[in-house]
């Protein structure tokens, strides 16, 4: 069964977190795995890697093939170097003590580089913070100076306007008030009353004579009797 050492994605969107696992090469990336040998968190600077070195080297001895990213992580943590040194020990090229010494020296050097990088990042962050505070202080001072200058200008303008108003008031002659002439009252003219209109008598129409009632026609029976006679 071919075995792969690869990363299995976890975490949330935008902040991934990976497990370093040994899994069947035919399994899905985030599916079942054979062994979890470490974790990898790329959200920190530098990235945080927690690796079980002995388990990783054992899987390498058993023929597991790491992916490119997993190989870089194993190399960063010294697993690939230990696998190489163990191969030299098995061939008799060097003793186990020599291999352990070389591995320890390499790990100490790597740890020193990582520590120096962290210190450098901390100093850079502190320097950036101090510079940001200085820039903010300079900007605040400029704003305060500009506000003070604007206030002084407003005060000078107000004083100038007040002085001009006082000078104009002193130079302008007093204006005499002219009495307002009273308009004579308008007499109301009486309104002439219109003469009353006499009502004309309404002529009565002559009564119409009633037409004489038409004589009733003789009954049909009487006419028949006359014919028989």
Description:
The chain has a domain at 3-94: 2-Layer Sandwich (S16 Ribosomal Protein, Chain: A), CATH 3.30.1320. The model is unreliable at 211-218 (pLDDT under 50). The chain is built from 5 helices and 5 strands; from the N terminus they run ββββαβαααα. Helix 1 packs across helix 3 and helix 3 (79-91) packs antiparallel against helix 4 (96-171). It has a 5-stranded mixed sheet. The chain is an alpha+beta fold and 229 residues long.
Task: Give a quick summary of the entry.
It contains 5 helices and 5 strands, in the order E-E-E-E-H-E-H-H-H-H.
Instruction: Tell me the major beta sheet.
Output: 5 strands, mixed
Name the helicity range: 40-55%
Q: Element order, helices and strands?
A: EEEEHEHHHH
| DSSP strand content | 5-15%
Globally, the shape reads: elongated
- Name of the top-level CATH class of the domain at 3-94: Alpha Beta
Question: Which parts are unreliable, with pLDDT below 50 for 5 consecutive residues or more?
Answer: 211-218
Look at the helices and sheets and give the structural class. Answer: alpha+beta
CATH homologous superfamily descriptor of the domain at 3-94: Ribosomal protein S16
Measured distance between first and last alpha carbons: 152 Å
Counting H and I runs of at least 4 residues, what is the number of helices? 5
Write down the Rg: 61 Å
């Amino acid at each position: 069964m071919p075995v792969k050492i690869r990363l299995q994605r976890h975490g949330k969107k935008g902040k991934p977190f990976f497990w370093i696992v040994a899994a069947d090469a035919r399994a899905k990336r985030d599916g079942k795995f054979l062994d979890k040998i470490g974790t990898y968190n790329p959200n920190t600077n530098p990235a945080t890697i927690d690796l079980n070195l002995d388990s990783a080297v054992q899987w390498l001895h058993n023929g597991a093939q790491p992916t490119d990213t997993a190989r870089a992580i194993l190399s960063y943590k010294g697993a690939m170097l230990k696998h190489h040194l163990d191969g030299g020990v098995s061939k008799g090229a060097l003793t186990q003590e020599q291999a352990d010494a070389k591995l320890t020296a390499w790990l100490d050097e790597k740890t020193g580089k990582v520590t120096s990088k962290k210190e450098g990042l901390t100093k850079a962050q502190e320097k950036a913070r101090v510079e940001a505070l200085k820039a903010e202080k300079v900007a605040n001072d400029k704003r305060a100076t500009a506000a003070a200058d604007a206030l002084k200008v407003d005060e000078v303008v107000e004083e100038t306007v007040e002085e001009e108003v006082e000078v104009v008031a002193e130079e302008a002659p007093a204006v005499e008030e002219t009495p307002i002439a009273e308009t004579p009252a308008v007499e109301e003219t009486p309104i002439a009353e219109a003469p009353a209109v006499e009502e004309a008598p309404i002529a009565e129409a002559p009564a119409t004579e009633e037409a004489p009632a038409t004589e009733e026609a003789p009954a049909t029976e009487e006419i028949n009797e006359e014919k028989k006679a």
